[in-house]
Amino acid sequence: MSARRIFARPARLAAIAPYLWMVLFFLVPFGFVLKISLSQTAIAQPPYTPVFDFTEGRAALTAAFAQLSFDNFRLLISDNLYILSYLRSLVVAVTSTLILLLIGYPIAYGMARLPQRWQGVAMMLVIVPFWTSFLIRIYAWINILQHDGLLNQILLALHIVSTPVVWLSTDSAMYLGIVYSYLPFMILPLYATLSKMDASLLEAAGDLGASPRQAFWLVTFPLSLPGVGAGALLCFIPIIGEFVIPDLLAGSNSLMIGQTLWLEFFTNKDWPVASAAAVALLLLLVPPLVLYDRLQRRQLESNR
Amino acid sequence: MARTATRLTRFNMTSLALGLAFLYLPIVILVIYSFNASRLVTVWGGWSLRWYHEFFNDRAMLEAAWMSLSVAAVSATLATLLGTLAAVGLARGERFRGRALFSGMLYSPLVMPEVISGLSLLLLFVALNAERGFWTVTIAHTTLTMCFVTVVVQSRLATLDRGLEEAAMDLGCDPVRAFLMVTLPLIVPAIVAGWMLAFTLSLDDVVIASFTTGPGSATLPIRIYSEVRLGVKPEINAICTLVIALIAVIIVVASFASKLSSARGESAAPL
Q: pTM for the complete prediction?
């Protein structure tokens, strides 16, 4: 016990450098986003009214607060583009999460039933694509899905279709890309809960006359719900802000909020509106994050 | 645990096989096509190293590749240093003022959409009047990846037997020496895995790099990304295959490191 306390001081000192780093490069930038989201658009370089000058101290700070404007947020609400991309992000995230659950569950279930020594191999096989470049994996699909790509060639050769089908720049291609990229995020938490499950519960269910199907729906599935929740949130949260996949695979007629932010920033060069979109995106993330945090905490407690 | 009741059914095997095929087939196809001699991606013109040759003669691509590799190496090293220190602070520092804020800051970038991280860092760099290029991208990547390093190292520290440190101190080590001589060697595999993870994450990033880089200093993913938007080029297949090969080497090293740690009788490092 005493050793612990002696350890605490140097350990706290060790944390100083990373602490300062995170404050400077994470917290402070965030303040800028908030500030600029509340400032007026100006036609200048850089294109927003100046952020307050640190050298002027307090007076500048209050002056800056006096000019805060909610115009950008008003624009977000009044312009259809933003509401639509906000909603589209939600719809895409919910739909992809459901598809991921449908595909990921059987895979995780199969993994959990493998003989012990094969489970490690299977897990490694699922993790490897997660390490492999995400951009390259999306690009691999473009190779397959493009107009004269492999998929159309196979379909033509088998006489399933007579003219090439348009796969790229469709919502289906985007969903395929998202499901492909996030599948490991869904499988791993599901596998974690399924493999920890006590097999004697299933035996007991069988002894009491349950068919395998009944045993699954009455025992296995309810017990795996924490994993289902964790996997779903682990996918849902990053998909909301997704930019690269919809940009490369989906059509350009409707955007997700991450794309809108990107467009406002790089194409329209409207930094304040981009910042406001960033704040809106963050607000969209708060409920699933709180939920995830609560779920994790409950799981930790039940493990104790 | 008794596993007699949980026999593998045909359904289990099929879903596993299909799942793994789904995960790997596109990558395998990409690698095969990178050796295609034909300019048309669709026509198989026999095996050839033509596109690799093309890549090694493409100055702009090579510069981007070099930029990416050096950003990844420097930022992964910085991130490993800072992330390990942060993990030690969190795991061994017990309570200190601002601990909640600290761990909150360290966990947020894991879930924060990259567009937001990129935008906010750019706004900071603009406010600081920093010239954008190698260092701004490196700082951005360090900030993002050190959080992953912290998670990996911290979970390793959490499973470590504290009795070892205490024994070392009973034998006369001061806390810092006890850490350096006993704890550090035990968490080296996690630190190595953390570095590898940081390196591959940096090598992969398009979004944050796009926000934080300056004109004329594009990373490889940024270049690939802009090429891909214009359509598939066989040269890109070759570059992607090279990146996959590099990452494969990293995975082998990382899994070797974690196997080394489990051979010592401890649980393997996460990831």
A: 0.84
